[in-house]
Amino acid sequence: MTHQFPALSAEQKKALFETAHKIVASGKGILAADESVGTMGNRLQRINVENTEENRRAFREILFSSDASINQSIGGVIFFHETLYQKDSSGKLFPDVIKNKGIVVGIKLDKGTAPLAGTNGETSIQGLDGLAERCAQYKKDGVDFGKWRAVLKITDTTPSQLAIQENANTLARYASICQQHGLVPIVEPEILPDGDHDLQRCQYVTEKVLAAVYKALNDHHVYLEGTLLKPNMVTAGLSCSKKYPPQEVAMATVTALLRTVPAAVPGICFLSGGQSEEEASVNLNAINLCPLPKPWKLTFSYGRALQASALAAWSGKSANKKAAQEAFCKRAQINGLASKGQYVTSGKGDMAAMKSLFTASYIY
Amino acid sequence: MAKRLNQIGVENTEEHRRQYRQVLFSADSRVKKCIGGVIFFHETLYQKGDDGTPFVQTIKDKGIVVGIKVDKGVVPLAGTDGETTTQGLDGLSERCAQYKKDGADFAKWRCVLKISEHTPSALAILENANVLARYASICQQNGIVPIVEPEILPDGDHDLKRCQYVTEKVLAAVYKALSDHHVYLEGTLLKPNMVTPGHSCPTKYSPEEIAMATVTALRRTVPPAVPGVTFLSGGQSEEEASINLNAINNCPLARPWALTFSYGRALQASALSAWRGQRDNENMATEEFIKRAEVNGLAALGKYEDSGEDSGAAGQSLYVANHAY
């Protein structure tokens, strides 16, 4: 193991490096529009819209046909397979619509969870079979980055050593294969927010998980400068009785990242998890204002947190297209600002009070 | 110390060792700006200057932090190609507690790896990383900042790329072990080798190439939470060690940790040969030391303008062309 067998040529590295940096260019983040058919069904059901291919297409068209200036806030869009081959009303393929705005096209590559026998309901992720061939095809079809979501959960007995190890390993295998085919891998080790654990517990688990992920990436000879990380923010569990202000979430999150994510990684694009649109923006903003060093871009890769208002405004009616687009563009713009720590909320602005809270209670 | 004194024809007695350390420790306030810590050997921690002042006191009075070597040397790893681990964990906690009482606030533990056809092996990397993490954990429990030193020897004919590759593998293992052992990274320091070609490598590399390879390796493995990286000088000459450190601090990649020096020979070589065991030479020898300390202090800020040939632009074009990092 002491000899290097270079995985990538200098040209391949350069291309991956540039794509990764383009996606997380200053003020930009990612629109995660890769909801599977089933997940899209959940979203559409909430606005009483039938889950048909046309409806899914129509909604994505609303998002993708936004004015080109959306490229000031959106650096990349993650597609679901079906969407990659759909067209807008003028017959143009969606990936081309996105590319013409100077936005990078990505694709969800994992094939969902599979149980890890002998664990407390933990899972690994499938999708490695034939992944190389799929990546090669997607690359031909206009894709330049991939996404793979691993899932871990916090309970008294989880995440277990096996779950951490196995998910880190599959993430690394996926990342390695992606890079071989010119796709920047977004590495997503999501620790679910479900549970009543406090902020400290989430921070501890996040640190352990990310340490394992980066050891695995190193073991698998992945070129870090050509990857992106999509982690959860460090938050208390959804049913935790204690509430933490954004500054504490930010401090816990950035501390965990400083302890585990090498500076070579160009950008960290947070998932929004169960957060509301505003919460996700306010937290991202606080993260970018956190008084710790931040050697990577800290931005967003939001699904629900970018689309919820747009979805509600649309409600399946083409007459609402403009309103839906405006709602989407507004969230995109806000998150773009938040990724620079420039989002000034209109809500209660008692920053001083918030500050005193976090310094007093929480040791990181 | 026997080797060092032998080289200047001085007998290796406790008194000579004391006198020599006094030459260094009696440096005036000029060193305050460039020396933040001094690593002691056990014997020296309990020695005094001519005026009866304990060395620990003299150093602390200059506002410099006192450190102590705590490892007990290398031992063979059976079944490997001459590889080693480092011993010293037994009773380490008690020793740290005592050193803390006696004025030490940081410690150092050196692990050694080497590059050859089949080394470093997975076992050597794993075992040394683990022992470093145990040491670090125990230190912190006793209020001592652990300097973590996974030295990859420069011996061999391997090129720069190979050293970079091995350094990345070793450091990744070290930081995984530190995470596994719950070590508080913000309260540690790293003392790695710079990434250099082997001593007998036929290809020569510029300081800019060494800097690029070194900083790239660190960026890929050392979490930004680590406050500082203090390079060992290995086999480098005094000037080489300063020039390389300077190039590292001028490297056009983002560097989230302090990048400075933890030099032995590269700070003392001139002082040692100026001293030659003669009390009359003490002041001159001290001056030599201060001079190297100041040069390295500047190099740690990327501000050392060496008097040698100006490689400048020529040096730069070399690294862009040859080495895909």
Automatic annotation (TrEMBL), chain A:
Transmembrane segments: none
Keyword Disulfide bond found: no
GO terms for MF: fructose-bisphosphate aldolase activity
Listed pathway(s): Carbohydrate degradation; glycolysis; D-glyceraldehyde 3-phosphate and glycerone phosphate from D-glucose: step 4/4
Record keywords, A-Z: Glycolysis, Lyase, Schiff base
GO biological process: glycolytic process
InterPro entries given in the database record: Aldolase_I_AS, Aldolase_TIM, FBA_I
Catalytic EC class: lyase
Record CDD domains: FBP_aldolase_I_a
Tagged with keyword Flavoprotein: no
Documented EC number(s): 4.1.2.13
Reactions performed catalytically: beta-D-fructose 1,6-bisphosphate = D-glyceraldehyde 3-phosphate + dihydroxyacetone phosphate
Family: Belongs to the class I fructose-bisphosphate aldolase family.
NCBIfam families per UniProt: FrucBisAld_I
UniProt xrefs under PANTHER family: FRUCTOSE-BISPHOSPHATE ALDOLASE
Name of this protein: Fructose-bisphosphate aldolase
Protein species of origin: Alligator sinensis (Chinese alligator)
UniProtKB/TrEMBL annotation, chain B:
Pfam families reported in the protein's UniProt record: Glycolytic
Key words of the record: Glycolysis, Lyase, Schiff base
A single GO molecular function term of this UniProt record: fructose-bisphosphate aldolase activity
Broadest EC class assigned to this enzyme: lyase
Biological pathway: Carbohydrate degradation; glycolysis; D-glyceraldehyde 3-phosphate and glycerone phosphate from D-glucose: step 4/4
GO BP annotations listed: glycolytic process
Protein name (Swiss-Prot/TrEMBL): Fructose-bisphosphate aldolase
Organism whose genome encodes this protein: Alligator sinensis (Chinese alligator)
Source taxonomy: Eukaryota, Metazoa, Chordata, Craniata, Vertebrata
